[in-house]
Amino acid sequence: MDLLQLKYFQKVAEIRHMTKASQELHITQPALSQTIAKLEKDIGVPLFNREGRQIRLNQYGEAFLKKVNIALNALEEGRREVDDLAGLQQGRVSLDTTFIPHFPNVINQFTEKYPDINFDISHASSQEEKENLLVNGEIDFCITCHPIDYKGYHNVPIQREDIVLVVPKTHRFASMTTLELSEAAKEPFISFKKKQPFRETVENLCLKAGFKPNIICETDDYQIINNLVASKLGISIVPKSLVEKSKLTTVVHIKNPISERIYYLSWKDDRYLSLAAQQFRELLIEHYTQLNVSNVED
After folding, report:
1. Rounded CA gap, 204 and 130, in Å?
2. Best label site of 34, 108, 261, 296, fewest CB within 10 Å?
3. What does the pLDDT look like over 174-225, one tens digit per residue?
């Protein structure tokens, strides 16, 4: 049994598909199958149930995965501690983030100061995936619009953002600067898919306004939403930071219910954070604090 086998096992357990896992690991499918077979032989029991092309952990695999996660996380913490012994001259910061205004500026500011520190940035497609990354110790931080509501986790609000209505330029709402969301109850909506965290935000806002939105089209891509609104297929509720300047659409602010979302920086209290991660956390919080003060003064 070696470290590579454990990492491959962890990936197959996550993906549940041998071919897709091999593609993510950048090895051939036969080579991955052989590695898993050898691991099972070393342990003495099968770890997976094969179901056609899909592969799922059995009871032995579930038990083994828990220990593998602990072991690999411990090794990763050891690597971060070694990085700390070298000071802030090297290291890695890992986080998962939803799109947040000004975030690229934070990365640029940090890398200018610490050019040899690398980033591993992911974008989970759902809140559950985001939380799992943090719970399993795969990332240092996550930036989310839903605080991690578990004991032992820290959530710092860093930014507020308006949620607005985007409508075609020729729409009856286009001449309005603000409206009550209830006025849009009978409109066709274009929205993000259900697995996207913002979809829940949209539905909750509409429920507060007294109606269930008539969503006639859903997608993962805001550019598609913008294009469909521009083509007069419907209207959409979106974060203000995603709105693009267009001659074909216009923005209307929602005055009731209060329509905004809060971004949080979240981390696990008992996770070892490298000096690099600690310094990044400090810089990020300071950056948004100054930005928020500046916006208030303006």
Report:
1. 21
2. 296
3. 999 999 999 999 999 999 998 888 898 999 999 999 999 999 999 988 899 9
Cα–Cα distance between 72 and 70 in angstroms, integer?
A: 6
Task: Dig out the tokens for 160 from the structure.
Answer: 């507020």
Q: Quickly list DSSP for 187-241.
A: SEEEEE-TTSHHHHHHHHHHHHTT---EEEEEES-HHHHHHHHHTTS-BEEEEGG
Owner of token pair 């089209």: 217
| Beta pairing, strands 153-168 & 249-256 | antiparallel
* Share of residues in the chain with pLDDT > 90 (%): 51
Query: Exposure of 290 by Cβ count < 10 A (0-12 exposed, 13-18 middle, 19+ buried)?
Result: exposed
Q: Is residue 155 a contact partner of residue 148, using CB atoms and an 8 Å limit?
A: yes
Among 47, 58, 78, 68, smallest CA distance to 136 is for 68
With a CB cutoff of 8 Å and minimum separation 6, the contacts of 55 are 12, 16, 17, 18, 48, 49
Q: Report the alpha-carbon distance of residue 170 to residue 197 in Å, rounded.
A: 30
Query: CA-CA distance, 12 to 253, in Å (whole number)?
Result: 46
Domains of the chain, earliest start first = 3-67 (1.10.10.10), 84-158+262-297 (3.40.190.10), 161-261 (3.40.190.10)
Closest CA to 9 of 53, 62, 79: 62
Cα–Cα distance for residue pair 117/190, rounded to 1 Å: 40
User: Cα(255)–Cα(217) distance, rounded to whole angstroms?
Assistant: 25
**Could you tell me the mean pLDDT of each successive run of 10 residues in the chain, 298 residues long?**
87 88 86 90 91 85 90 81 67 89 92 90 86 88 90 93 95 95 96 87 94 95 92 95 87 92 93 88 93 58
